[in-house]
Amino acid sequence: MAAVETVQGVTIDPDTLLGKNYLTPTTMLDAVTLPYFMAAVRAYERASAVARDAAISARDSAIVAAGNTIGGAATQATSTTSLTVGVGTRSLTVQAGKNFVLGMPVRIASSATPTTRMDGIVTAYNTGTGALDVSVAASNGAGTLASWNVFLIGSAPPITVPISSRTSNSILTGTDTATFIDITSGTFTQTFTAAATLGSGWYCRIRNSGTGDITLDPNGSETIDGLTSFVMYPGETRDVYCDGSAFRSVVVTSFSRTFAASGTFVRPPGYTSFLVELWSGGSSGGKGVNTSSDVLGGGGGGYGDFMIPSSAMSATETVTIGAGGAAQTSSGTGGNIGGQSSFGSLAIVYPGVNWATGGSIQNGLVVSSRPVGYEGASSSASDTATASTIKGGAAPVNGGLLASGNSVYGGAAGGTMGNGAVVRAPGTSLRGGNGGPASSAGNGTAGVAPGGGGGATQTGTQSGAGARGEARVQGVI
User: Fold this and answer.
1) Reduced to 3 states, what is the DSSP secondary structure of residue 257?
2) Rounded to an integer, what distance in angstroms lies between the CA atom of residue 107 and that of residue 262?
3) Contact 378, 368 (CB under 8 A)
4) Phi–psi pair at 314, nearest 5 degrees
5) pLDDT tens digits for the chain (477 residues)?
6) How many Å apart are CA 379 and CA 473, to the nearest integer?
7) Buried/exposed 32-51: b ≥16 CB within 10 Å, e otherwise
8) What's 241's DSSP letter?
9) What kind and span of H or E run contains 363?
10) Which CATH topology does 163-253 take?
């Protein structure tokens, strides 16, 4: 039965109006009947709202009363911890020996007013002490209270994941439970609160979205994946879990680390193998005597890709990056050869056998016909096609107006000079470095890293230097 309402001194009973067909769609609502009709609508709206609120209250009370039925006494508890109603992590103390487990959906409801509540999932529970952490995703009501019923509910509310962006270390604590730690820049050591303090069930996600190296270092002698520390390289994301005494992690996204200079690679856990790409240094161009001299550009550095099983790799590997050949300053002299690059003793890529020859994964692997694999191109090449290669270093071209050799993966050759101050273009590379342009009276231009050969000069002060090599390492899950 709908509530009655008084309009202009007249008592309106909506049920009576319906019985007399005053509120049917065919009723003509004039200036007299319209106020009565609107009063009836408002009365029904109020009646519906009251009924809805009563239903919600009855439902919430029923959930509290049915706590034992839903999950048994083992998933029902009480707490006198003072908590402020809201979302986020809530830490409280309940009875010990309960069956609250990680990921279980629970409700923290006021003992006095059950409709004041917080719904979330269990992120940690210590059965010995009763310490309980809940990641609250939805709440109703407000205030700070200290008398709660805690119990299992049928399903968890949508989870809101807190995000913590940082560029320097801030020790990870219990408040970081279920938090996405996004490291946007910097090279530093990320520290952790003691595992026993964080407790079993603590977890977070860490992403290195910057370009630096982040060292994960648990407290004291505690370990993560059995190691006292390890490096998270750029691009890597990990889920980190605590069992109360140590930490474990699972790789979510892999890393890619570029070495433009020699250094040390620290093998991170969680990978089956590592893809290592190496480029040797490119050679510098030659320096002529006059404009009548033919002067070759420098050969490109070689390239190699190596899939190395994690089990074959040491905990640390020395990464050596070959230098580019130094610019030539002596007239009538060829260029200088670039240096070899290596990844420990597991992978090596060599420069060319001379300054005008392309590099390769095997020392001296050079062919005079067109290379089709990892071979370096020969300095005897008389056309661009023969001087070009796929995964080896390209060679300069000695003749005509043709450009120097190109490479798909290796370094390209530097530009050359022909009789009569004829400038021949340098080669290009899709994944390695381009060759440097040549010049008659000016200096040759240095090659582009990784592995580009330097350009020649006829009468300039110096030729173009060869470009340095490079190493790129990617983890394979």
Assistant:
1) strand
2) 55
3) yes
4) -75, 170
5) 555 555 455 555 555 555 555 444 444 445 555 565 566 656 666 666 666 666 666 655 555 454 444 457 899 999 999 998 877 789 999 999 999 998 899 999 999 999 999 999 898 999 999 999 998 888 888 889 999 999 999 876 766 678 899 999 999 998 788 889 999 999 999 999 999 998 888 889 999 999 999 999 999 999 999 999 999 999 999 999 999 999 999 999 999 999 999 999 999 999 999 999 999 999 999 999 999 888 999 999 999 999 999 999 999 999 999 999 999 999 999 999 999 999 999 999 999 999 999 999 988 776 666 666 788 878 766 777 778 889 888 888 876 567 888 999 999 999 999 888 999 999 999 999 999 999 999 999 999 999 999 999 999 999 999 999 999 999 999
6) 31
7) eeeebbebbeebeeeeeeee
8) E
9) none
10) Jelly Rolls (2.60.120)
**How many angstroms separate the CA atoms of 273 and 253, rounded?**
14
Would residue 270 be called left, alpha or beta, if left means φ above 0 and alpha means ψ between -120 and 50 degrees?
A: left
Return left, alpha or beta for 181; rule: phi > 0 is left, psi -120 to 50 is alpha, else beta. Answer: beta
- Domain map of the chain by residue range? 5-65, 71-152, 163-253, 255-477
Both structure tokens of 401 = 């107006």
Q: What pTM was estimated for this model as a whole?
A: 0.71
* DSSP letter, residue 253: E
| DSSP strand pairing (5-7 vs 10-12) | antiparallel
For the chain, helix (H) and strand (E) counts, in that order, are 5, 30
How far is the C-alpha of 2 from the C-alpha of 16, rounded, in Å? 10
Which candidate, 306, 320, 404, places its Cα nearest to that of 361? 306
Residue 10 CB neighbour total at 10 angstroms: 10
Query: What distance in Å separates the CA atoms of residue 50 and residue 47, rounded to the nearest whole number?
Result: 5
Q: Is residue 450 reached through a cis peptide bond, with omega within 30 degrees of 0 on the bond before it?
A: yes
Burial 332-354 (b: 16+ CB within 10 A, else e): eebbbbbbbbbbbeebbbbbbbb
Of 197, 470, 189, 193, which Cα lies nearest the Cα of 342? 470
What phi, psi does 245 have (nearest 5°)? -135, -20
Contacts of 23 (CB under 8 A, 6+ apart): 14, 17, 37, 40
**Which pair of structure tokens corresponds to residue 198?**
């964080």
Q: How far apart are CA 404 and CA 414, in angstroms?
A: 7
Q: For 393, how many CA atoms within 13 A lie in the half-sphere containing its CB? A: 53
CATH of 71-152, one of 2.40.10, 2.40.50, 2.70.98, 2.40.160: 2.40.10
Reference 467, options 360, 453, 457, 456; nearest CA is: 453
**What count of residues does the chain have?**
477
Of 465, 409, 398, the residue nearest 433 (C-alpha): 409
State the chain's maximal CA–CA distance in angstroms: 117
Tokens for 450? 């990784």
DSSP state at residue 310: G
